[in-house]
Design brief:
This protein is α+β, with helices and mostly antiparallel strands. It has 8 helices and 16 strands.
Length: 392
């Protein structure tokens, strides 16, 4: 009697009809408690008001949506909200509250609807179902205690067996460690002895290899030095022969040029260079003076051919020949005058030490120039024949 009264007092605000656990199960699990099948329905009491619930449907047009962790919590929110007459609750813990009128429900499997009724609560029926639920919970607890006792017994038995097996394994491990240490000591002794022997043999082989290598290096170095000395002597001789041949050929060419000039002058068919081409300010050290500012002429007549000067320009557009060992820029100009295909000559002051000038031979009858500014000794300059080439 006291137990029944206790249950009734505990649930003054909550009663159930079709499912004794629908309105008492907490959290999202209350959806399965209310809706074991998609067509399930039932009733429950919240604070003296009987709510009817129907699974698998949803009331559209809710006035507000709140969070509710269970069916009971959603029904409680509706009960304490003015003008709330119905609600929809989802297993996703959402509660949609509606006004006084019931809208037509929609089919929606993850929702259930709640409707207030005017029915009177049935405490006896509610109490009976809750007593049944309490009995089931008590039986479940008794079964759990029995299983827990069996589990404790099994655990004690397993612990005892585990302790015995661990002791056996420790003994086996100790025996294995003792045997392993003995075998390692023996193996280490044998290994050290063999290793010492092998190292001694390798040291002997290394010493012999070093001795042989040093002997071969000494022999190779002696032979290489001897061969290198011979080859250097040969190269020095070839260089000296080439220098003598160059000087001989240069002297011969200069003599031929002088003879030809003397012959031309003697026969009355020679040309007289212009005064500008004879100005000492231009022809003395002409590699530097022609474009250094000391020479005040831009036009020169050499060998009967008129030339014009263009300083600080690099030149392209022709086929370039390298003339070496000329005594001055004017010598290069005079040689160009006698070659109709020669459009002009260029030079760099620094290359004058080798008598080096650049003869620009015709390809298209024109030369291209570009400004060249920098160290005066490295600047490019040009003297060209206007009658033979257009320069731009």
């Amino acid at each position: 009697m006291h137990f029944t009264f206790y249950l009734l007092v505990t649930l003054l605000g909550v009663g159930t009809t079709a499912s004794a656990t629908c309105f008492t199960t907490a959290g999202p699990a209350s959806f399965k408690a209310c809706c074991p099948t998609p067509q399930s329905s039932g009733k429950g009491t919240i604070s003296g008001v009987v709510f009817k619930y129907t699974c698998g449907q949803f009331f559209n047009g809710g006035e507000s949506t709140i969070s509710a962790s269970s069916v009971k919590e959603c029904a409680e929110e509706c009960q304490k909200t003015p003008h709330c007459n119905s609600a929809s609750w989802s297993a996703k813990q959402k509660c949609s509250l509606l006004g006084e009128k019931y809208p037509a429900p929609m089919k929606l499997g993850s929702w259930l609807t709640l409707q207030k009724t005017t029915e009177e609560p049935d405490p006896e029926q509610d109490c009976k179902e809750l007593v049944d639920a309490a009995k089931r919970e008590a039986e479940s607890k008794s079964e759990k205690d029995k299983l827990r006792a069996e589990a404790d017994t099994d655990a004690q038995r397993a612990q005892s067996q585990c302790t015995t097996e661990k002791d056996q394994l420790r003994q086996q491990a100790d025996t294995a460690r003792t045997q392993c240490q003995s075998e390692k000591d023996t193996a280490l002794t044998n290994s050290n002895s063999q290793c010492t022997t092998e190292k001694d043999q390798l040291r002997q082989q290394a010493d012999a290899a070093r001795t042989q290598c040093q002997s071969e290096k000494d022999t190779a170095l002696t032979n290489s030095n001897s061969q290198c000395t011979t080859e250097k002597d040969q190269l020095r001789q070839q260089l000296a022969d080439a220098a003598r041949q160059r000087d001989t050929e240069r002297d011969g060419l200069q003599k031929q040029l002088k003879d030809a000039q003397d012959k031309a002058g003697a026969s009355g068919g020679g040309f007289t260079d212009s005064a500008s081409a004879q100005d000492s300010a231009c022809i003395n050290n002409s590699w530097n003076s022609l474009c250094s500012g000391s020479c005040g002429h831009d036009a020169f007549t050499v060998g009967g051919v008129e030339f014009k000067r263009k300083c600080n320009v690099s030149t392209g557009g022709g086929r370039e020949e390298q003339w070496l060992h000329r005594s001055s820029v004017m010598d290069c100009v005079r040689e160009c005058a006698g070659i109709k295909a020669c459009l002009g000559v260029g030079w760099i002051a620094l290359q004058g030490v080798n008598g080096h000038c650049h003869a620009h031979m015709t390809v298209s009858g024109s030369l291209r120039t570009a400004p060249s500014r920098g160290n005066p000794l490295h600047e490019h300059h040009l003297i060209y024949v206007p009658a033979r080439a257009s320069v731009w």
